Amino acid sequence: MEMEQEKVSMSKELSADSASSCCSTCRGDEDWGLSHPIRGRAKSRSLSASPALASTKEFRRTRSLHGPCPVTTFGPKACVLQNPQTIMHIQDPASQRLTWNKSPKSVLVIKKIRDASLLQPFKELCVYLMEENNMIVYVEKKVLEDPAIVSDDNFGPVKKKFCTFREDYDDISNQIDFIICLGGDGTLLYASSLFQVLNEVVIDRGPSSYLSNVDVYLDGHLITTVQGDGVIVSTPTGSTAYAAAAGASMIHPNVPAIMITPICPHSLSFRPIVVPAGVELKIMLSPEARNTAWVSFDGRKRQEIRHGDSISITTSCYPLPSICVRDPVSDWFESLAQCLHWNVRKKQAHFPEEEEEAEEVQACTPASALGVAEP
After folding, report:
1. Which of 47, 240, 273, 349 is 20 to 30 A distant from 223 in Cα terms?
2. Are 261 and 184 in contact (CB under 8 A)?
3. 229 pLDDT higher than 90
């Protein structure tokens, strides 16, 4: 029953603290208390009370159980506030922009090892950065041990100006303004590993012939047990790698999310899922698992997981920005077409104009004119 300015009696079990409260962002000058009537609105769309039923505290709905309208209000006093218990706030990657207060001075050049086709581009790039832009160039020590670089006397003066480092020994994370990778996706993953940035974590059954049996927790709640060859936890950037091969969707890097993809699950209904980027995932070996499991990080640092071990996975608050040739949308879809041949197929040939006209004439001609007996 629809009412206007209806007074509804409230329960007396409310405490004194909850009897009066106000919100500074929603008309804080007026208190909400027991002495205030509920400010009804004409044609109310929520629960309403009949005068005859108010004393018995019975309510009924005035409309059908449809979802809220797109423009939703929460009354004259309610408002939506940020959750103060939120541990991590994940910003939309599309809203982030990389800026330098000053011109960048140091650059790390990653070159694919044992690739002869990259030697000349590597030399030209380093000469350009050091001599024309007066930048500090960091290269890995094993890159300079390439025989083609060692034997090149013309490259010697430039080679002496390099700053070198060794993986797992020297920390250069606070000395690099940006990174240039020469090579395929492997060089990008290698550069990410130098700065402890991951795209995917894979838990699998390893050399055992038994199914992998691991429990997956989301914010402390057990959501499922993976029985199969394993599970992949990946970022949107990592969704086009192992996860895509295992049947997951490919997600644009601007989407803040985490993907959970089973590997050959022993259940036809176990499909890949996408969860918010701000959650905390924990993966641990099930107590009843017959064997141990193995974990690898971007295909590196593979190690065994035993009973009692667990892996906690969260999205970093500081995503790694990348420089696009044109824009994030064009670059990403072009990469899908070039690297994965996404939706690449031979296009259907169109009909010549003569055949189209002949088909139209044939469709419009009566059956008797074509010498076909009518039934």
Report:
1. 240
2. no
3. yes
Q: What is the pLDDT of residues 72-85, one digit of tens each?
A: 566 677 776 666 65
Minimum mean pLDDT among 106-120, 201-215, 356-370: which range? Answer: 356-370
| Secondary structure of the chain in HEC code, one letter for each residue | CCCCCCCCCCCCCCCHHHHCECCCCCCCCCCECCCCCCCCCCCCCCCECCCCCCCCCCCECCCCCCCCCCCCCCCCCCCCCCCCCCCCCCCCHHHCCCCCCCCCCEEEEEECCCCHHHHHHHHHHHHHHHHHCCCEEEEECCCCCCHHHHCCCCCHHHHCCCEEECCCCCCCCCCCCEEEEECCHHHHHHHHHHCCCCCEEEEECCCCCCCEEEEEEECCEEEEEEEECEEEEECCHHHHCHHHHCCCCCCCCCCCEEEEEEECCCCCCCCCEEEECCCEEEEEECCCCCCCEEEEECCEEEEEECCCCEEEEECCCCCCCCCCCCCHHHHHHHHHHHHCCCCCCCCCCCCCHHHHHHHHHHHHCCCHHHCCCCC
Contact 167, 192 (CB under 8 A): no
> pTM of the predicted model, to two decimals?
0.67
- Mean pLDDT confidence for 231-247: 92
Let me know if 18 is exposed, middle or buried by CB neighbors in 10 A (0-12, 13-18, 19+). exposed
Per-chain mean pLDDT for the chain: 76
Cα end-to-end span (Å), the chain: 65
